[in-house]
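Task: fold both queries, return tokens.
Query 1:
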Amino acid sequence: MPSRSSAFSCGALPSIGFAYQAFSDDRVVRAMLDQHSEDLELAKASGVLQAGSALRAWLADASGNLIDAATVLLPEVTGHELIDLLALGEETNEEGRPRSHAYTLYRSVVHTLGLRKGDHVTQRTVDLLNEAAAEWEMDQEVLEAVLTVATQPGHRLNADQLHRNLLSHSPAERDAWWGIDTYSMLNEASALHRLLRWAEQLPTPDRVRPLPAPATTWVRRPGAFMTVTGSTQEPPEEVARLAAVALVWTFTSPNRFLRDRATKAVVQLLLGYPDVLVGLLDQFLDQDAALVDDPYLFERLVLAAYGVLARTDASRAQPELLARIARRVLDSVYDNVAGAAHASRNALLCDAAARIVRMAHRTGGVSDEEAARSHHPHACPEVGEAPDENTLDARYPIRGKASERLWASLRSSFSGLADFTNYEVRPAVDHFSDLPLTTPRPSQPDSAPLVHEAVVLFRDSLPEAVRDVLASDESIRALLKNSWRQQQVLNEGQQQLLAACAPEPTREQLLAAAAVDKEWASRWVLDNAARRGWTPERFGAIDDIYGQGRGGREGHKAERFGKK
């Protein structure tokens, strides 16, 4: 509301001020542009405000909030950016303009992006944003600005452009900027946090089984309109699609709390948009899967799809949608062994996909033959070999010549006493076997008959007082399993005779009993993490930060990038 105030007085003339500062700034700049329309007409043609013009002088000395308003309005009026109209480069070189003035103009381009009309965001605007990130170290602020407009249909920098940009980077390059920049956004008042809250609090469609009502009463949606929680108002489908694309990319984060929150938000968002869900599966699991190449994203996207199908009771209410999604999952997750989203690469992805297939199979949406494709075992690519310790030391030195930390934060997870090696790698490989999956598992060697002739010789070698006790089949089998006890009660010759009592294992028994060396497996994991793109330059410093002082030894905490 306008109000009279001495703060806005100008001599003896009465003045009107606006309590809403940004609106006041807009009115002031519009008035100045109207007053200097001739200067603007010349600027439209030349792309520069003429030296000595009153408007140029006023803009050069304007406060930051007026600069923000001018940054929004001048592209609409002249078709040129404020920073270009002021010929910033020439002023900096010839007139000795302080660099702080350039910083103010670049910062204004970044901070006002969400206030602009989408059709006045041009390639030049994009170039200025890139310059702000590269030359003025505003990369975090630029990302915040881009996420602010992510859900605007038709916007040059919406989630579709974010998708293309992220696809143009390898997974490691992507994590080195997108992953790091978004890692802590869940705990900040950021555009991403607002998007998450908006998606979480969208009204549940009437046809979906109701959930307990959220505590919040009002929800702000992208696009600056308000709605009451629980109302039937839903965002346009294109807005929902763009929001989902942006949120799906947060599935790549090593921060499990961000992944968990985003997964639930995507489920709530897509309850009323089955076509958007199918489109996302086509986009990420099929069309762009090779470029996405991120197991975290594939896993959470399929899990979100399962969540939508379960929440909407698709088995009963939408059997055709369920069958359609099940076939998409079968084609993407279970067909191409070399595919980036193949089930053999991620157990959680396989589990979520199999749940969808089983749900569809129960309703007759997929045949027995189709459902069988999701059954274990799955073919997988060749594992390859692991380098030895000397090779690891040469490839991935722990410290540099000046004792600086290089690969220390990654390699520390794979030392002999490291928790990751002992509690993750070893329990996993203990279940591995060299026995082909097509071969029935043989009986254990200790259940096979003992060698009779060897048992007789062993019995005769024992003192008569203990012969009946130690030479029984039960005692012989127990001693064969306990080398320490053998040394306590038998001499060296008796131990050799005891060993001969054990039946010769079959080839199948040897393969089934062969253990995978946890040290070999740890070296393999380390080498593959490095081959996927972990380097000290990309992640060393950030992993040192996230790896220290983060809540002790409990398991449920945000991960380091090296762990991903």
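Query 1 returned. Query 2:
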Amino acid sequence: MKRILFFLVITSLIIIVAGCGSSDQKPFLAVESKENIEQELINYEVEKIVLSKGFQSIEPNVEVLKKTNKIKLLTSLGLVESSGVTINKIVKDGKQIDIYVNSLFEEDKLQLAVPQVVIELKDSQLGKIEDMKFNIINENYKPINIKFGKNQVLNKIYSHFKISTNSIPTVNLTRLKDKVLWNISFNTIFDKQSSKAPLVNLSVQIDANTGDIIKSEKNIVSNYIDEGNILDYVPGNSLLYKRTQEVEGKIMDSLWSYDTKSKEITNIYTSKDKISSAAFSPDLKFISIIETDGNLSDLYIIPSSDKRAYRVTSENPINPKTMMWKNGNTLFLINNNEDNSNIYSYNVDKNESQLVATLNMNIENLQIHDDNFLVVEGEENEVNKKISITKNWQDFKFKDSGFNPKFIDKNKIAYLKNKESEDKNLLYIYDVNTSKIYDILDYNVSNFLTISNKSLIFVEKNTCNNDYTLYSYEYNNKEVQSIAKINGDKIYYDSNNNLIYITLIPPFENEKAEIIYSLDLNKLK
């Protein structure tokens, strides 16, 4: 009887459990089906492998780059000490794509980096790639984990060392035994702790897991000269610059000189209006000034003998916009009207002006070498202007477009030409004798200076950074060499002392004035 009751109870339980399940679901079969999902090998092509040293993100990640009908993956493999990587296979496992990665370990090529691989998936039966999950399978390595990322380390440096910069530092990760170290280097940055805000180079090493500063080195690379904006420079002798100040609610300009040998600063002239330009005569006996009230302009001459400025007057008033010294006693002036430009010469010894020519063009700039005149004709809303050369103001040769032209010597000129399609300024060298382009420097040039008839220096605006690179160029062999990274392009070069004079606005919230510094290029290399 007991056996019969036991049998009935067991039978009832089985019926109850079976009744609780859906007639459409078979859990066992579903699990069995999941285990038996077929893995598919995906055809692929590796387009590019880069050991990235940017370190902006060091976490493993896969990003889909879908272009037209092609499916590409940007695969970041995390922080690894490696000499390279290989992709062994890519497998589709249901809604997941597994990427199998091998690291390479060539002893003399090992470095800490974030390997990034661009992969094109060739299979067209993947379905919606956006619905897929990605899994990076590291077959012979483990990504390195650190607690302090790049941005955390940089913020710590800015705060601890009281620095300010408008450029990006050089950043690297290295390994020392069991430690991972951040190595950060800054060039020509502002030291907030100095009242004169000198420019410094700073190198810092920080433990990537503790955040501790291991060591640091700070070197001053500049000398503060004065507040102001450089207007002219005579190599090995003097800087001419202006300072703008507010006096009793009125903005006033004053002209100053800096003796590069004695380091003496002298106030030369104070204007009630705006000083638009100023220049030394070639023999340093005179300083010419164009002063404007916004409508009319006047020419002033300051003899170095007594430093007393006098205004140049004539029977037919001149409203000069541009000036250029031809020699020690002759100054050329450009007066622009609505339809033409008048060219005058002014003799400082005789205090006489003479109309040289009237041209049906809008002359914006003028360069002089002996009896050769390099003329720049303005083009409204155009970066590139009309450039030509004349000796008699009647016959013009070498007609091209560009801007900021300069004589190298009587046989060569250099000028910039904007390439609009790439938004960059190329540096052209033109041979007057052969009437041919001698060379084209394919850099994004923002400024250049002729040093001699054998060489020049030029400044390139760096594309991915808010700074510049200074280069030298030799005419004979057309050789270009990098000199230093700098953080401005308004420069003047002292070749004897390997210095540059530069005007900068410190990136401080309470500092808006331009400051003139000298930079020792020997410390910037």
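Both queries returned. Flag for query 2: Helices lie at 2-20, 27-35, 150-161.
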